[in-house]
């Protein structure tokens, strides 16, 4: 089986079942999760649109799979939260996203200078920090957002959906996501840090 075939199968599985199988625990108040697991699988197999509707998802054909999106979906919970913190650290460092090491904060500052992310979204979108990061996710994958949002705490999603969709530079947004996803997968280590960057001249 080729890589493209594996990608397509993984993507179709997530689109039809994986989105609810990987949902954050905060979505457990859905009546669907009150059913026994066997009944969940049976309902999802026979009536997938009914399951989707229970999460407010309208019927839609899956878009073409993207390696970036599949990588994001495969991230574990801790890496996923770190990803959101990195995005906020790049676009709105004043939001003080938690869990970022000093090395990661320096990395965020460097990328922010290159991408000029402060011009994309109002800093208000990042209060709390996760709302702004999820707004960026909603913007780059609008067709997949109804399913993607289930990966994250419901409260964070509610905060993001309070902000109207915005038009962002597509190429820079893609570069931002590629860099942040890559960094979220790296082990915590201290890269080379310029002395001047740590202690800027007064």
What is the topological layout?
Blueprint: H1 3-21, H2 37-46, H3 48-54, H4 67-74, H5 77-91, H6 102-115, H7 129-140, H8 145-148, H9 154-161, H10 170-184, H11 195-198
Helix pairs in contact: 2-3, 5-6, 5-7, 5-10, 7-9
Overall geometry comes to: globular
Estimate what percentage of residues fall within beta strands.
Answer: under 5%
Secondary structural class = mainly alpha
Domains (count)? 1
Protein name: Type III secretion protein
Describe, in plain words, how this protein is organized in 3D.
The chain has about 200 residues and is mainly alpha-helical. It has one domain. The chain has 11 helices and no strands. Helix 5 crosses helix 6 and helix 5 packs across helix 10. The chain starts with a helix and ends with a helix. The C terminus is likely disordered.
Quick description:
This protein is an all-alpha fold.
Labels describing this entry:
disordered C terminus, globular
């Amino acid at each position: 089986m080729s890589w493209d075939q594996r990608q397509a199968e993984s993507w179709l599985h997530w689109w039809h079942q994986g989105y609810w199988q990987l949902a954050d625990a905060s979505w457990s108040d859905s009546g669907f999760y009150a059913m026994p697991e066997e009944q969940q699988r049976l309902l999802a197999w026979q009536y997938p649109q009914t399951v989707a509707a229970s999460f407010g998802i309208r019927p839609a054909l899956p878009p073409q799979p993207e390696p970036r999106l599949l990588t994001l979906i495969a991230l574990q919970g801790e890496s996923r939260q770190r990803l959101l913190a990195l995005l906020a650290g790049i676009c709105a460092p004043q939001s003080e996203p938690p869990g970022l090491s000093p090395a990661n904060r320096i990395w965020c500052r460097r990328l922010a200078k290159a991408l000029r992310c402060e011009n994309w979204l109002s800093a208000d979108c990042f209060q709390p920090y996760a709302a702004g990061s999820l707004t960026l996710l909603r913007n780059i994958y609008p067709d997949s957002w109804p399913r993607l949002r289930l990966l994250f705490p419901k409260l964070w999603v509610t905060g993001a959906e309070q902000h109207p969709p915005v038009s962002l530079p597509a190429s820079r947004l893609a570069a931002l996501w590629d860099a942040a996803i890559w960094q979220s997968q790296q082990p915590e280590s201290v890269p080379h840090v310029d002395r001047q960057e740590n202690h800027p001249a007064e």
